[in-house]
């Protein structure tokens, strides 16, 4: 088939808390702010010096010095990162800096999760204390930290030291999954899968759409697969788009087109439009998919089928197959 183009392990990533920072465009301004004692500028310039971004020549020695200076001035994200640097090296020092990050006047919410993780697991030489761990996980969850929401949800489901609350756990996991935190989506799927297996094709598709619109693709995709087994047209088209985009499943263009073809045969208008538009450019694109009778249908036939159902252009076709949020 021709290729056609158409329309966190929890601790290290969480403790670092800096991977998504973008390089500041005005390095000279940062240098001036650093000379004035600005702790935020120290932290940002430290990052640039560590990574070599923003046109800065890497200098790990100065980067470490600026990070420490920022932390000593009480900037919470710097305290959090400096604590991470001491993991496995000096447990007491690590814990001290992360506690400072969590208890600063303007705390770093990531530090809430980090303290919860350290206290619940005893990692890094920290003494386990589940009561304190729950407190910090709850602070992190309230602040919307996906890792904290996930960890708290898992404790509410599985930890014998914590009162079980599957309703709250599911809510926390769903909230974290909606923020794009894949471990939360994977854990939530384990929770909902047994019930999902009992759904009819239509029910599976509708529940899948709820997760799809929240962009929780690791759950929407298996639900669409379940409905697609019964040749549900819309589920086939949604699953096709998921493969075309790599949403919750590995990107697979050929399989996406295979699914679009079968969704069109079952009457989905978006799929019919995509098939028709594809055949306009590549008349033999679906030669491997079609029977002799099906080969008689032209691009115009498929487009007419889509138009009859209200899909008149590529944008309208794709909008039906795109998350609403």
Characterize the structure shown.
The chain is mainly α and 325 residues long. The chain has two domains: 10-143, Alpha Horseshoe (Serine Threonine Protein Phosphatase 5, Tetratricopeptide repeat), CATH 1.25.40; 200-319, Alpha Horseshoe (Serine Threonine Protein Phosphatase 5, Tetratricopeptide repeat). Helix content is 65%, strand content 0%. The chain contains 18 helices and no strands. α5 runs antiparallel to α6 and α11 (182-196) packs parallel to α13 (217-228).
List the helices and strands and how they pair.
Blueprint lengths: L9 H7 L10 H9 L3 H13 L8 H13 L3 H10 L5 H13 L5 H13 L8 H13 L3 H13 L7 H13 L3 H15 L4 H13 L3 H12 L4 H13 L7 H13 L3 H13 L17 H10 L5 H6 L6
Helix pairs in contact: 1-7, 2-3, 3-4, 4-5, 5-6, 6-7, 7-8, 8-9, 9-10, 10-11, 11-13, 12-13, 13-14, 14-15, 15-16, 16-17
Can you describe this structure in just a few lines?
This protein is mainly α and 325 residues long. The chain contains 18 helices and no strands.
Instruction: Characterize the quaternary organization of these chains.
Output: single chain
Q: Please write the string of helix (H) and strand (E) elements.
A: HHHHHHHHHHHHHHHHHH
Tell me the count of domains.
2
Biggest beta sheet attributes? none
Radius of gyration: 26 Å
- Helix segment count? 18
Give the DSSP E fraction (strand runs of 2 or more residues): under 5%
The CATH architecture designation of the largest domain is Alpha Horseshoe
Look at the structure and give the CATH class of the largest domain. Answer: Mainly Alpha
Low-confidence stretches: 1-24
Percent of residues in helices comes to 55-70%
Q: What sort of overall outline do the alpha carbons produce when their principal axes are compared? A: elongated
How far do the termini sit from each other?
A: 33 Å
| The named CATH superfamily of the largest domain | Tetratricopeptide repeat domain
